[in-house]
Fold each of these.
Amino acid sequence: MTPEKTVARLSLYRRFLKLAKDEGTSNVYSHQLADMVRGTSAQVRRDLMALGCSGSPQKGYDVNELIKHIDEFFNTSEVVDVILVGIGNIGRALLSYFKSGKSHINIVASFDSDRQKVDRVINNSKCYYIEELSKFVSENNIKTAILCVPASEAQQTADVLMHSGIKGILNFAPVRLKLPANIFVEDVDITMNIEKLVYFSSGKRK
Amino acid sequence: MTPEKTVARLSLYRRFLKLAKDEGTSNVYSHQLADMVRGTSAQVRRDLMALGCSGSPQKGYDVNELIKHIDEFFNTSEVVDVILVGIGNIGRALLSYFKSGKSHINIVASFDSDRQKVDRVINNSKCYYIEELSKFVSENNIKTAILCVPASEAQQTADVLMHSGIKGILNFAPVRLKLPANIFVEDVDITMNIEKLVYFSSGKRK
DNA sequence: TTCACAATGTGATTTTTTTCACAAGACAAT
DNA sequence: ATTGTCTTGTGAAAAAAATCACATTGTGAA
Ligand SMILES: NC(=O)c1ccc[n+]([C@@H]2O[C@H](COP(=O)([O-])OP(=O)(O)OC[C@H]3O[C@@H](n4cnc5c(N)ncnc54)[C@H](O)[C@@H]3O)[C@@H](O)[C@H]2O)c1
Ligand SMILES: NC(=O)c1ccc[n+]([C@@H]2O[C@H](COP(=O)([O-])OP(=O)(O)OC[C@H]3O[C@@H](n4cnc5c(N)ncnc54)[C@H](O)[C@@H]3O)[C@@H](O)[C@H]2O)c1
């Protein structure tokens, strides 16, 4: 129902709203929010409308109220538990990034097939041997996974994730996973991002 | 002129076409390509039309010809030189990833403000002190940069990049850079990706 | 030969997303 | 009190992207 793009932006709004709040700002105008996410004020108002919350022409939107609404929208004001599979270069970078606890994301455990890498605790999250994944996921009712294994292993690992009950996968491997439609997959494809960037930054368009 | 989404997919098509080629495949049908990028065959044909190349209803598209066309489209059958700023966790992960030389991306140099990190060679690319960035960029006519510095440093570093002549920035910092419209910025926002993923994978929609 | 099939290329249509544009309301300044 | 200036909320329009649907055309089986 809510447009996909709106969902993405709501996540950004929340982040910037929290920063604004920390700075003591108590209300914001749509154009300020727009600046923060490189959008237009009309778009911001549309997004907030989808959220069902409103501001006043005088004071704009109340920061706290907005944050509360977005929290409700994502229905996780608390932290969301996710797991990470593949403790290689990006895997470790992500573990380090998310340990901070500044976001709503909590990487509760990580898994690897390399015996050398398991049973350690990297940035608060314990590393398990890959065989333990299924059990962990079902016991802890985990729904979301970050996949950082080599491309050659990605599909089979994704299959395991699916069978364990995972419903959403953030995939860093440069392959398109084949999974049933009820599993939501989001690809992070950096090579593609750069190629696109090169194309548009070499004066082709826009 | 060419839709942004099409540009993104063309990059993917090329990657998968090269894999197909390595496996000895000499022609592909639109639906095969569609499978590879999670799209529809009609969409693939549209994209390839934008490219101005055509196939035959009998043999589909010629793999080599398609690759050639896409290379031409991106007008860099050769490697594209980019620089990387901020040799931290993701910075190093990216250096390691792109050293392989398997893609069209070549990280020719990296820069950091930490004296400890410079003057080494990490994965083929020399690390320079940040002060040398401007000179390097203009002398080597670099147009594209990957930005991996902390959020607090991102805007000022982006300003330096812009003034040095950079036209496209792949930004990993969780802030929206304020730059003139002729600088193309692409954000990689992993926190947002995960939040979106959590939203859609918890049965909200789609 | 004739027919069914499978795939391309593309106009037309639909869906999704963004932008425009303006009524309405509060306030500050004159 | 009047005027000018902000901003919200939102229909209406536009733009961008995806999908539909079908004429067309080799190919091979009957
Ligand atoms: N590093 C980057 O910057 C980057 C950029 C874009 C894409 N990627 C992609 O992300 C993925 C990971 O990249 P990386 O650089 O971290 O690779 P890496 O080789 O450093 O790490 C891969 C990790 O996965 C583990 N692993 C291998 N098979 C496994 C399995 N079956 N089950 C569980 N764990 C397994 C390995 O032990 C290793 O720890 C790759 O698919 C890569 O193409 C990486
Ligand atoms: N690590 C991740 O998985 C991850 C995920 C999402 C976003 N990010 C973002 O990416 C950026 C980098 O993350 P990281 O984990 O690699 O951080 P990091 O702290 O490991 O690395 C930052 C690097 O930038 C260098 N640096 C600092 N100021 C600089 C300056 N002015 N000029 C040049 N170099 C400078 C530091 O010396 C350090 O090497 C951050 O903005 C972070 O928020 C990281």
Amino acid sequence: MPGIDERDREILRILRSNGRITLTELGKKVNLSPASVKSRLEKLERLGAVKGYSAVIDPAFLGNPVTALIFIRLKDVDPYTRSMLRELASLDNVEFLYLKTGDHNVLLKGEFRDMDELREFLKSLKKTFGVNALSIEANLVVEELKNCWLADTHYDSDCGREKDYGKRQRS
Amino acid sequence: MPGIDERDREILRILRSNGRITLTELGKKVNLSPASVKSRLEKLERLGAVKGYSAVIDPAFLGNPVTALIFIRLKDVDPYTRSMLRELASLDNVEFLYLKTGDHNVLLKGEFRDMDELREFLKSLKKTFGVNALSIEANLVVEELKNCWLADTHYDSDCGREKDYGKRQRS
DNA sequence: GCTGAAATTCTGGAGTG
DNA sequence: CACTCCAGAATTTCAGC
């Protein structure tokens, strides 16, 4: 990667594990003034190294206790299909959507209010892709041992009975 | 969810799509003073609704252009296996690790410098789980159409030749 | 990339319904 | 109890170097 040094990468790594750290704190960690960190960060955002910032939310608190992984095998990914996929990606209960190698070429993770909503979603997928979808399969997420680069503040789908070793640090 | 109202959920949704929004801005969006937003947010963090904050980083800029989805079928998930999984989750090239229903009961997403590193990783997985791993399969992520609840600022693994319709908004 | 000063935001406590 | 207001502290931001 041209124009990116180890300082920049360190900034990216820190920001990945603590997205709300202040520029001042970040500056202390990488031995740079807040202003310098800011200008580097602006560069990194401009270059697309930083896609955005997000809070990691337990979907149960948003009324979506059912998380599913959905695998789709598409016969071909033509421009028309891509527009469908783009639309799918824009849904606000879809966390991620990947094109991948392997038996199924699409993987999607979504949140649902209940099994009925998941069923409806699958039905609409079938309708959307029609004969182009050679196979659609859904798995339920039973437990998230890790999500999104955060440290061990893990949780269960059935409401964290886990020991709370280590509060998140923001200082 | 007891003790969580629509205001709280709105805060969670906003924070999920913009993790670095300021309390003042957030307050404007939900018609609350910064101080109130702060106390609600503290409650939400205490309850575990907010797991943490993260920047979404293009792994290529960290020297890991290869992203893989790895499926594992474990014969059983006993306490010993769980400790292995926890260790796996703690690796800093592992983005997520789920237990799930279906043919393979573990799904992992990881970043790698190159194919060799991926191969080594798979080999170490085989060694770690031994005969308990009935199957280990790896797929490559070809394209991320969506990742982590951010809007359409999508990118390709092979360095964004995509049209840049829509800059990320932070205000 | 740093400094310094102005603008903005954060934060904790007192006060209100 | 949840909220607002307010003042001091911290952070962000931008100019100039």
Amino acid sequence: MSETIFIGVAWPYANGPVHVGQLAGCYLPADIFARFHRLKGNAVLMVSGSDQHGTPITVKAETEGVSPAEIVARYHAMFLETWARLGISFDLFTTTGTDNHREVVHRIFLKLLAQDDLYLRTQDGIYDPIARRFLPDRYVEGTCPYCGYSRARGDQCENCGRQLEPTQLIDMRSTLSQGKPEIRPTEHFFLRLSKYNQPLLDWVRRQDHWRPNVRNFTIRYLEEGLIDRAITRDIEWGVPVPVEGFEQKRIYVWFEAVIGYLSASIEWAQRQGEPDLWQRWWSPQAKSYYFIGKDNIPFHTMIWPAMLLAYGGLVLPYDVPANEFMNLERRKISTSQNWAVWVLDVLERYDPDQLRYYVAAVLPETNDGDFSWRDFWRRNNDELVATYGNLVNRVLSFTARNFDARVPDPGQLGEADLGLLRRVDDAFAAVDAAISAVRLRDGLREAMALAQETNRYLDEQAPWNTIKTDREHAGRAIFTAIQAINGLKVLLAPYLPFSSARLHEMLGFADPLEAGGFRPGRVPAGQTLGTLAPLFKKLDESIVEEEQAKLGTADVG
RNA sequence: GCCAGCGUAGCUCAGUGGUAGAGCAGGGGACUCAUAAGCCCUUGGCCGGGGGUUCGAAUCCCUCCGCUGGCACCA
């Protein structure tokens, strides 16, 4: 039975390149999950895009003295290159700057407004009379009331780290004009989140299959009670408010960006030439998964579901498998200090599957994880190369040398051979169960366990001995090992798509790997192997120190 | 400060009431098809400290210590 799987992936701010923390947080997990379901024959739609609004973008633009649009264009192009080179297989990766997105946001905004889920309220704003505009909190500076630091910002004091309200600052001043801001009333639209508190709570309590931390966090949050939040701002960069008299205001990014999941689906359908096709992934039969980092949980388990409930007719998230954070060499990743590993930079020196393997093996699914170059080097050489790559190499090169590069005829299979083939079937069941439950690290572990099992089988059968005395026995062992390798190719395809495709060719297949589906398959006796080459490169230990030396120094990207 | 989570072998982690586990590292061995890879055996842990519940606790409760995250206009 074919399933309909929607995969939404967190929208990265277009203000910097992608680093391994983001990769581990959502992009790689989403891609593994998408590839798995496509192999199973399920209908997958995976979308995301550049989040081009929000304070980080405008701050970056001001720092560089260019327009926000310029920043966005630069990093959006970089994102697309990253996905292409790493094999992150989005069906569509768009931006929040499209006409389509604005239209979809407006449609939702106006419907919610018409049914009173949005309402107007006047609140105090910080107004700069010289610049003649309202100021976001972080554009206000002053003396911290706690520690006396003279350049504390309106949202936080960088000296003592406290969260602040701008009005708490002593001698408040505008960072734009250095003038003294005044308090002025300003009208904003509020989302009636409080109305959906109880429905959300009832809904979340039923989600037994969610990760405990995601579910517990959400339940606690809801038990405290959601407060209505302003969804517009006195800013210039963002989606306009579709109401007369509000031309100077914009819809705030947290309300608008999550709508991207829907608008991207619609854009994708339009590009397919079937404008209504998106509805299949937003109907009640669809299962929608949102891959995000844990910092994004409230928006995907409460605010977006509240908006969906309010709008009506669209399916709520089936699962939100949020990941924890990934540290780097035991320290928290910090892009401003360049304590980060940039994906495009890594791909200059390593194959995409080497990076994909390592990151998949240490995904922070249950706890914060750690990316370390020594561990990268170690796992690449000891696990990827030695256990899997070497298995493929020893079997296929043996076949080339002793069986004229043709898959030998096995004759009658014995108990040991059948045992290994059963083990392949078991591995498919285990990996299927793991990935289906979004336990991707476990899935990889299960697949690698089959590679170990096959190495063990080979040692027991020792075809390099029996080839001298019992050619048929050696052929049977090689045939069986090739079948196991063929299974590994499929099991690992979601994780290591590039090397699985190469292995597929080496095994002598001409059709695409995807055509075979997520099942063991068979390499027929007599099939001629393709051109053989090692699947993975072994790395010299010197890369550990070389890579570590780059951290915290030169600015990349 | 408040709330939550975590603290298990040298390292990375799994294990949520019933005789402590995996991978790697360390030690030993047999083999040689293979990217000196693979395979077998093995050393190693008062499961953060203390207290409690229980016939029985890494697992439940309390407390202390340490680390991490959230505390709303930062997504």
